[in-house]
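Collaborator request log, item 7. Partner lab (contact: R.S.) asked for a structural prediction of PGM2 protein to inform their binding assays.
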Amino acid sequence: QNPKTSATVKQLVADGNARELQKYFGSRMEFGTAGLRAAMGAGISHMNDLTIIQTTQGFCRYLEKNFSDLKKRGVVIGFDARAHLSSGGSSKRFARLAANTFISQGVPVYLFSDITPTPFVPYTVTHLKLCAGIMITASHNPKQDNGYKVYWENGAQIISPHDKGISQAIEENQEPWPQAWDDKRIDSSLLLHDPYATVNKEYFKDIQKQCFHRNINKETNLKFVHTSVHGVGHKFVQLAFKAFDLSPPFAVPEQKDPDPEFPTVKYPNPEEGKGVLTLSFALAEKDGAKIILANDPDADRLAVAEKQESGEWKVFSGNELGALLGWWIFTCWKNNNRDTRAIKDVYMLSSTVSSKILRAIALKEGFHFEETLTGFKWMGNRAKQLMDQGKAVLFAFEEAIGYMCCPAVLDKDGVSAAVITAEMASFLATRNLSLSQQLKAVYDEYGFHITKASYFICHDPKVIQQLFDNLRNFDGKNTYPKSCGRFKVSGIRDLTTGYDSSQPDQKAILPTSKSSQMITFTFANGGVATMRTSGTEPKIKYYSELCAPPGNSDVEQLKKELDELVNALEKHFFQPEKNNLQRKTE
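Returned to partner:
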């Protein structure tokens, strides 16, 4: 019943444009563990009023089946600032339609009255003990996209088999229920609650448990620049700084207010390198700020840059910031826990494609480190299991600039990560140390971990399948590569098929998934490289790392060795020319 999408379809029918209609209606968006993510527009392959209603009807029925007290506890719904004029879709409209669906079935809905960072949804699920949470966001995707992200009652993103159960329920509930389109009904409903004020108060109270140097924060002369890249983060990072008694960061004026057009950046993703930070660098130079904190548009990720003595800016990789935050959070814990026996219950987590630096710190300091599959859905669920066993999960991170620094949010959180990074930098400044110098000190103590990651773009699933099939049948059927250029392969783990050459029974320990491609190669020189497909973008990603034991300080030689390994990986395993792959561009 949306006049804009309806008119688009009628026009295509009138024009007899079968090709475009096929694009819109050829296949339904697939509901996976990351929920939905697609462009806004008409048809079942896009995010629009109808597909949101259908998805929520399915999700509602699935929750009714799983929770006898759903009508007592309810769900939370949050949204970012995305909007799409030509189709009339927006995150706020989708959130209201989703709320209407639940309320029509007698389910209480905690609908945020205004835009909110993604981490506030899992926080609310846990804090108010709700059955589930929905966040309408496409994070850092291009402006035409939107998404539907789902959290379970444990406060973590859903994992299998929930995705399959929800997907099936969507299939069974496609016809809109009576009143499905009439979202105005919710405004007078007693089942509608607004958690905005409560959550804003409680969240900032909870993250203060991670504030250990209030006096330093009050006194520091260090200046920070913050950008929310036209997303939701501005107000919340300002409030986080206030909660930690830090002077507010300078906000990049052109980017601080939400704008669904993202007019100043090509991609609204701080992970894409210096291009997104151009305006931040300019403001920092003007105001004499040393450190830049950049959130992605839904404020669950954080990028950090620091001005070096040379005048150059260094943008830390996700792995480098993970090393710094891991060191910092453990140091703070150690200083506040004099009982040495408590360390046996301390854990840190990272995903399998992230740097192994936490493993090195854990080995030396005596706490536990665990690796999970890629994505915070795995780390969040594992953290909750450990916490339920009385363990302390201090920190979890992934190389895609995602950090979980606070046990109150079982997902990546760019707001708490920003303010904790600011406190760490302020503390280091009292010792005349920069973040870069401290990073070197961490590597000196625990061993250098040099990483390099990138991706190729490929829009053809057949080519991607062929590329991975080729790696599994490299020297004849069912044989993986024995070398990559001059680099000898010493181990292979394939989490698509479940094969792991390092295990006695050759079966992988981590869960496997036939629907996504992921192979990890270990090399005789101590290098590790993983190739995997992305769940939300048309990319084949790779991650590589060279770990050296403490004492090996020839960093340039390690970097050179890793560069050569990556070049060999691209040339022999990706074969970009043969497979017509498009390289990442700055």
